[in-house]
User: Which sequence fits this backbone?
């Protein structure tokens, strides 16, 4: 089984059999790579009680997710959300405030969220942090 490692590279020079190659990849981070392997860490699921009707605040303009207790940890650069009818999207990090990461999207406002996941540092899970759906259409 092949393992893929993603790294941020600004530029590189490679010599193979006397032939030199200069590379300037456009990959910004491991989290942006699709199909090349997942970022290192632990997969966490959104708190199920938060995605049930009444489990989040009503906001008809967007879906908003929060991962809290991040002080000392890097916020995931994206989360993966699935809605009714198997629609799935990668939602990028919107902002980090007060140790909480926010992820907002206007996708699928006429559907219900069925799941969401993120990849985070394994030690975060012992800090009593939560991954919740904060607000969305009711």
Assistant:
């Amino acid at each position: 089984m092949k393992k893929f490692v993603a790294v941020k590279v600004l530029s590189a020079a490679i010599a193979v059999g006397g032939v030199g190659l200069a590379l300037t990849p456009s990959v910004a981070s491991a989290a942006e790579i699709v199909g090349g392997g997942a970022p290192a860490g632990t997969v966490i699921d959104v708190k199920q009680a938060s995605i049930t009707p009444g489990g989040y605040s009503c906001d008809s303009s967007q879906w908003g997710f929060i991962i809290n207790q991040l002080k000392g940890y890097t916020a995931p650069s994206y989360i993966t959300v699935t809605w009714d009818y198997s629609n799935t999207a990668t939602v990028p990090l919107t902002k980090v405030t007060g140790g909480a990461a926010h992820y907002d999207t206007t996708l699928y406002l006429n559907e219900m969220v069925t799941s969401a996941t993120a990849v985070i540092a394994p030690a975060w899970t012992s800090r009593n942090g939560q991954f919740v759906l904060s607000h969305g259409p009711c």
Notes: Residues 1-38 have pLDDT under 50 and may be disordered. The chain has two domains: 1-38, 42-136.
